[in-house]
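Human: Respectfully, please carefully check these tokens:
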Amino acid sequence: GAAENTSSYGLSNPTISNDVTTWDCIYFGNYYQSNSSTKEPIKWRVLSVNGNDAFLLADQNLDAKPYNEEYTDVTWATCTLRTWLNDTFLNTAFTSAEQVAIKNTTVVNDDNPYYDTEGGENTTDKVYLLSIAEASNTAYGFNGEFRTESETREAKNTAYAKECGAWTFTSTEYTGYEGNGRWWLRSPGDGSGDASDVGSNGYGSSTGFSVYFDGDAVRPALHLNLSSSTLWSYAGKVTSKGESGSSQATPTPTQT
């Protein structure tokens, strides 16, 4: 049959205008965000859409975990964060039907492009983290230079992520970063005991942090089968400036 175009489900690829990126967003799954007792719909940015496939990145940092539970030489294929995402997080955030709608993705684990640190074996995952290459892919709406500050890579921590120990920018000296956190990437850092990440100002750190560091947040990514249209809903748009648009107009109250 004919291939579906990118607008079949009312979603579009990211657009960049005057250095500001705009992403379409959807709600899919539920996770703790405002507190540790009530799950709320997870908002995802659409990094790309192709037919019924949507590549999604969480709009905010959802949790805080070390890349690996102990300090040792480790890659994405062997780290404990990968196990947690594809077990505990998967089963907590998604129903069985939603899990079926999440595609199994062949995740390519390249070496660190700056230090040649070994990326390890490729994996097959339902949920995973972005790589250095993906976090600097302009097609996904990111700044093409990884090792530079960029609003396109900034992410807020949810209240729950803070509760779980996510380091959160709170200084009043620099405006615009309040509430932002650091978030892990799956790519290795400059050594086999380090993993790369993104800073609160959107700067991509190719050296990264010790895999045992527990202050970095978790910002999951996944591929969703959009044909399961009863399982997700449109969530408006968000820009790299932090602006968001509602999927529905706010009704004007009628005076009585």
Remarks:
- Residues 1-5, 248-254 have pLDDT under 50 and may be disordered.
